[in-house]
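Q: Here's a chain of 198 amino acids. Please give me its 3D structure as tokens.
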Amino acid sequence: MIAAFSSWFALFFSAVFTQNILLTNYLGMCPFLGASRELKTSFGLGAAVVLVMTFTTPLNWLLYHSILLPLGLEYLALIAFISLIAAFTQLTELVIMRVSDSLHAALGIFLPLITVNCAILGASLFMVARRYSFLQTTAYGLGGGLGWMLALLAMAGIRQRIAKNRLPRGLEGAGIALIIAGIMAMAFTAFTGMATPA
């Protein structure tokens, strides 16, 4: 039991830090660069991604192992995963609209784009490719979402600080954002070797 918990925790930890889906696989870069200008917007989008990734990754595991695999329909996995993610994202958008109109307005186009956020789809595809169990998939989905949100919040904090400073003309906008993302990716690799999944 302790060994199993240790394995799940190691997988969770690596999904947040050492194998951060955004900074090691560069999945979900569009909303990362587009919505990381303000902390409030970044927190809202990050929370929505955590919610969607945490629930859709294990739901996609159940869909794959309970329906697609037994019926020999594995080739439909991509379409099935995207459909489930789209339905759950729509539900999340309705909840955010009910809870906070200002957050819904601030997130704008990025909220519906969670449906096509390749980080969320990537988590479901990785869980199949790496043959994770249901509990490992749940730990990976939660860790992957939190890791994506952590990177987004760090980027938003840095961009808010540098917005008040003058930058060389060629580094404004996407240029400095990509440099920061590269430095963050190198910083996250400092955790490598601390905890790795079995």
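Q: Can you summarize the key feature?
A: The CA atoms of residues 86 and 115 lie 5 Å apart.
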